[in-house]
Amino acid sequence: MARHSEEDAGMAKAPPAARQRKKKPKENKTRTVHANILHDCAKGEENPNRHYANNKIKTTKYTVLSFLPKNLFEQFHRFANVYFVFIALLNFVPVVNAFQPELALAPVVFILSVTAIKDLWEDYRRHRSDKEINHMDCLVYSRAERRYVEKYWKEVRVGDFIRLRCNELLPADVLLLSSSDPDRLCHIETATLDGETNLKQRQVVRSFYDLDCEFDPLKYNSIIECEKPNNDLNRFRGYIIHRSGRRDALYKENLLLRGCTIRNTEEAVGIVIYAGHETKAMLNNNGPRYKRSKLERQMNVDVFWCVIILLVMCLFAAVGHGLWMFQYGDNRPVFDVLSPEGTNLSPIMSAIYLFLTMIIVFQVLIPISLFVSIEIVKICQVYFIHQDMDLYDEETDSHLQCRALNITEDLGQMQYIFSDKTGTLTENKMVFRRCTVAGVEYSHDANARRLAMYQEMDSEEEECMSHGGTLPRRDSVTSHQSARVVLRSQSTKSHRRTGSRAEAKRASILSKHTAFSSPMEKDITPDPKLLDKVNDCSSQMDFMRFHSQPMSQLPSDLSDIIDFFIALTICNTVVVSSPNQPRHKVTLTCSGQKHQFGQTSVRSKRDHLWTGLHNDVLPQLHSRLPGCSSLLSSPSAESTLTKLHEEQPSGGLEQVFSPIPPSYDGKASWNLEEGELRYEAESPDEAALVYAARAYKCSLVGRLPDQVIVELPHLGKLSFELLHTLGFDSTRKRMSVVVRHPLTDQITVYTKGADSVIMDLIKPPDTARKFHLCLFLSFSKKIVCRTQHYLNLYAADGLRTLCIAKKILSKEEYACWLQRHLAAETAIQGREELLFESALRLETNLHLLGATGIEDRLQDGVPETIASLRKAGLQIWVLTGDKQETAVNIAYACKLLDPEEELLTLNEACALLLEESLHYIQSTPFLVHRLGLVIDGRTLAYALDKSLEDKFLAVARSCRSVLCCRSTPLQKSMVVKLVRNKLKVMTLAIGDGANDVSMIQVADVGVGISGQEGMQAVMASDFALPRFRYLQKLLLVHGHWCYSRLANMILYFFYKNAMFVALIFWYQFYCGFSGSAMIDQWYLIFFNLMFSAFPQLITGTLDKDVSAETLQQLPQLYVNGQNSEEYKPYMFWMNMIDAFYQSLVCFFIPYFAYADSDVDLFTWGTPITTLALFTILLHLGTETKTWTWMNWMSIAFSIALFFTVALCYNASCPACYSPSNPYWTMQRLLQEPLFYLLCFITPIAALLPRFFYRACQGTLFPSPVQLGRQLDKLPADIRRNILSLSRVKVGSPLCPKLPFLSLAKLWSWLDAHFLLVAGSGNIEVCF
Amino acid sequence: MFRVSVLQTTDVIPSKEKSRCGRVGGVSRSEKMVKQESESANRPDNTAFTQQRLPAWQPILSAGIVIPGFVLIGLAFIGIGVALLVTSRSIQVLELDYTGDGNGSPCSSCSQSTTVNCKCSLNFTLDTLFQGPVFFYYGLSNYFQNYRRYGASKDDNQLYGDLSYFTSPSSSCSPYDYDGSKNPIVPCGSIANSMFNDTFTLTRTVSGKTDSVPLDGKGIAWWTDYNVKYRNPSVTPLKNAFNGTVKPIDWAKPAYELDTSDASNNGFVNQDFLVWMRRAALPNFRKLYRRIDASGDYQNGLPAGNYTIDITYNYPVRVFNGAKKVVFSNVSWMGGKNEFLGIAYLVIGSLCVVMSVVMLIVYAKFKFPDEE
């Protein structure tokens, strides 16, 4: 079913640019647009459109003047910045100042200016692109010159007439008034808006429909009333008021949206309705989303703790200083400095002043550069994720997109995955598999065989590739092992139902632009039985037509068959195009016949619409055609028929058989063989059905706004007058077309929809056709019954089922319905609801034709991905709108459900059931891991009730997998919200369609699949993936890395700052708590910003604790992130304790080494600074797991930078830098052996405990991640063996020859983990 | 310490041009290449950096590597520690407190009185030669030269010889910038004001004859302080530069008369002044007073004998429970006497060895675990 839903897909509402609103005199509910040319002379004041935004866009945030204040204002929204500015300003107060005031400003100015420069650059880029866009050309009608003149986009105003040419971009939202297309159509490509690549048809406003001559803006004098600018791409309501007072409704089909491209249409003219920032495209243009990751939330708690520690330290120092002052009493020592007034400061006042001073001195404890560093690291992480070859999809030439820049580390902490099914787990490439018509099943065995063949081809091909790719690597392995490996890989292959990758690639080579057109989907092998019947039926019909017999005399089963295929062909929104020029539709116009048929029919239709329903022209046309098929003397002579049919396109018979012979567009001269036609559908299953019908020679040849041309066997091309299309929506779950049948001249409704709804709408037998009552009653019932039976079978096969039904309306019924429908169509307020009701009125008492089963193939690698994600400890829930049987089967296919599992199915909406199942689960604890829960939408609605949600969660938690079928988009998001809020877990939602948007937005991390369903999910997502299976690497590898890197970096940051600040704190005990620092102010201020900044950034960006291969092969390592094992609250405190210990070492070794010497303050303090730097870098070294040349370089650079700066600083300006006087200090120190002796011992003494702990831990109780790292170090062949063996239960003891003793640990750990996984027997292992 | 091995990127980078089975490959190789060129605009760069496959060294802390590493470091440290300890032991230090706390001490009378230039003397005896070069320090304890506000109380520009700062000293000197009658103080600030003003002379009594030990006061301050950082204004005579200024309140003599014997040792470049201005790091400190001039009898240091230090006692330290002392010391390549560093090296070295033993035990236990 078409899943493009009309619902507002939850696009975040961007408030329309407020500044335009301000000028409005009053807030109307609608916008009135007049043509500008009428008011050309009345510039400014009188122009009725003057209040509307012009087309100049300005996406920049700042102007030259406003940049500084505005940017600063924005930056001060971050609390940390305010804090640091406060401290810097505090330094200007003489009583409390600690440093040279200007110098203290440096870091905060640096941080602010880096951000400001970044903002400025971004803004400049926006400005440039704005300018470029604003200066694009378009043709605008000028009254003065009476022609279209070139103008810049920015000069376009609401009410202007603009002329658009083929392949031009639309400058604004334009109401289409005229088109060069004879059908008054304009084709647009909306890829830039929604990513959908199929062409969309837009229609000229009805009242301008029949202008034969070119549209003349001067004659235009209507007024347009429409709704206010909004961001809903799929909605436009309004009406146009002509001078005559007549009102015509306007639809979204009349509106061309800014940013789209005109295709296929030479010229179009329209009037601008919304311009600039009020266009729908701009209103939909939201910036990147901002989320706060779990790690950052955790970090903020610890930042808070840092503040507490800071305050405690300051308070301690202040009290200490007060006491120190107090002990001297009134006898001031000579070194005491009186207050500027020459009086003694009281100890209490001193303590208060000192408290403030200490805040300045200890400010480093709150890491000013932490926030900047985190941002930098995240940008790098995003860059690496973007660049990953493994996340690049060659077929679509797309790679993963990170749309939210600041939650990369959340990827490593996921616990629950909520997945959509269609398009996410499956390809969303629909293949027609089988159908039921009038209660008879046609199994299409040949088709199934064909599909199987495709699969085989793929797997063979991949086998071939894998041999080429991996065999050389296995050379070192013994033949015995390699054989086993190959065997395994084959067995996994055979499990797969997919493998369509290579095939899809082939298809993409053939045609890149046309969607849904791989040979697998197109070449459907017809079921011979059904084909016979179709031929039989149509030849009979032809015969009847020839003999002017009423068609209703056809046996009902046969007529059902032909109706079934007609419905498949026309009950959709498929657009026909030719492959050679896929962006051009096939046009069947312009030649002589057109006047006879095309024009008249078009016109007649409108006439009918307005004047009532009279006889049509079509039958007349038919009757005008001379009796031509005398050749067809024997309708049953099938071979002749077929032959004749095949000759049609070339032979002269064509005229005879088809009312409208195909004629060709002037420019292109491709031939119209049906095999060459391409169908562009909004949803893949529509295309699948059209292709299926084509296999039975019922092919869709062309589609115009009011007619569909269908080619039927024997009957040739028939034109169905299309009266209405009632589009698909997710509540009705069906779509209908109302056509006038060309053969019977009856108004027929064809409906296609989900079986559950259609079955309810089937006409009860007692009101069946009266003239066949006795016979029909039982028969019809039987058909419904049988069809239902087959539907169940299809669903059990994992097929998507659709029911096809029809209804014949009498003229009176139709007229009655039409009247109300037209009223609904022209309503501005509540039009959707009215149309919905109108559709409901029409779609009743249907006659069931048949049902189809469409296969939606699993995406490549889905079972493997799910298996490994599950091993990684992720709970996977599938939330789908599909019916239960289909969903369950897909779930089995992608290994979400295990055949060994017990399935708990909740289909009854009652509380008792939940309680029962809960009781059942609790009573049988053994079953806990062997349960799967299947729940349907109705029950889900019940289970999500406040009173029951806890019970539902309790049940769901104890199940291994949960499957929610028939769930609405809202329910999906409610489920995610429930799990997220109640279980306090990290959730990830993945989906591809508009129906997944709400769920994607609710989850902690939303992932969109950029697949076949347009871009709505992607627009709402944080990450967009080309395929589902990339989720594995994204989470297991990148998520893990991002998390562990960032967690370690944050911890390191806290450690580093605490360690550095503690040095000064210890010194306070030796300087009377006076806030004096032995570390020179320069070092103190630039330590974080310059000297120690680069190595941690490099490590934070590049460090890999475990290699990508091991992470993917041992998904269990993901648990590390789920349990936040890299960054637990106690780790912060452990780091703090370690920092204090290290600073004690770094302080007291120089202290005792220089005790009782004539050392001066900075000659003593500079070594301490140096030692701290060495210790901090070495600490980073012990925490760095992989050392690339960049790590070495960064550390070398840091040290070199420190010494260079120190030497330069100490050699410059002997009288500056008050109050410190470091002149020539470093130079002298470098001559002293003692300095080097200190540098040697202190870092080692400081890091000894940590190092010892790490060494012991790595040996005695290594964490899984450490084991993974040890595994990485093993030679590749041994590693592969261990990993392959780890997948089965290993019962034998280890061989003692293992190269690492700790491997035994790894082994037992793996063993413990996999005991649960597999149940096979013991396997002897020996290396 | 670390196990060194460069991680080999074992993966064969998947080739873009995967050879396919002949049956499938309807498209020729060259065609495909063209196609890839045109269609794969978004293809990421396949470099070791972007794919995070940079060759890397992966150290793993496992017992097998750590134990030998610890032993090696431990042994090296013990070696250094022994050498340091031996060196430190060879340094001679003589400390004499002259605060005058107790009644028995020679300077107790001076410490009680407030008379200027109170005289007292200390006697000491050397049994053996005090190996030269010998440095003569004075030491203060419980004296906070590192007090923050004290440290800031000076004017670097004034001390650099900038005359404009003579008339208007920096506010950082406050309240030692102007005297009661608003005359600027030069040198201003608390550091200068609190300059140590005890003086010492050393005499040796050899067989009843008193012999003055020659003391060398040149070059006791940092060379850069004397030549770069501190300067007198280029006014001759120096006295004129100080016109309109007053001496620091606690000083007996103005800055240009600090050393009457040597004209070049006056003003801001007086050696004792420079030594004082270099603030001590810790509250117990010593500052260099003089060197024993290595000439005549004192070629090799202080020979054995009886010595007397005559002290002009001016500096009050009893107020803040301070203490004053004189120190004689010689130095080695690693500076003055300090046993701590040697001991520290020994301790850390032994700790490393102990740790490696612990780890060895652990390793042994682990390698042969109990049969399960």
From TrEMBL, chain A:
The keyword Magnesium applies. InterPro entries: ATPase_P-typ_cyto_dom_N (IPR023299), ATPase_P-typ_P_site (IPR018303), ATPase_P-typ_TM_dom_sf (IPR023298), ATPase_P-typ_transduc_dom_A_sf (IPR008250), HAD-like_sf (IPR036412), HAD_sf (IPR023214), P-type_ATPase_IV (IPR006539), P-type_ATPase_N (IPR032631). SUPFAM superfamilies: Calcium ATPase, transduction domain A, Calcium ATPase, transmembrane domain M, HAD-like, Metal cation-transporting ATPase, ATP-binding domain N. Residues 1018-1263 form the P-type ATPase C-terminal domain. Keywords: ATP-binding, Endoplasmic reticulum, Magnesium, Membrane, Metal-binding, Nucleotide-binding, Translocase, Transmembrane, Transmembrane helix. Residues 44-102 form the P-type ATPase N-terminal domain. Its cofactor is Mg(2+). It catalyses: a beta-D-glucosyl-(1<->1')-N-acylsphing-4-enine(out) + ATP + H2O = a beta-D-glucosyl-(1<->1')-N-acylsphing-4-enine(in) + ADP + phosphate + H(+); ATP + H2O + phospholipidSide 1 = ADP + phosphate + phospholipidSide 2. Mg(2+) binds at residues 420, 422, 992, 996. The chain crosses the membrane at residues 79-97, 103-121, 303-328, 348-372, 1050-1070, 1132-1155, 1161-1180, 1192-1212, 1234-1253. One of its GO terms (molecular function) is magnesium ion binding. ATP binds at residues 420-422, 686, 728, 752, 800, 880-882, 966, 972, 995-996. Its EC number is 7.6.2.1. It is a multi-pass membrane protein. PROSITE patterns: ATPASE_E1_E2. Its main location: membrane. It comes from the Eukaryota. Residues 1-33, 465-507 are annotated as: Disordered. It is found in: Endomembrane system; Endoplasmic reticulum membrane; Membrane. The active site is at 420 (4-aspartylphosphate intermediate). The keyword Ribonucleoprotein does not apply. GO terms for cellular component: endoplasmic reticulum membrane; phospholipid-translocating ATPase complex; plasma membrane. One of its GO terms (biological process) is phospholipid translocation. Belongs to the cation transport ATPase (P-type) (TC 3.A.3) family. Type IV subfamily. This is Phospholipid-transporting ATPase. It comes from Oreochromis niloticus. The gene is ATP10A.
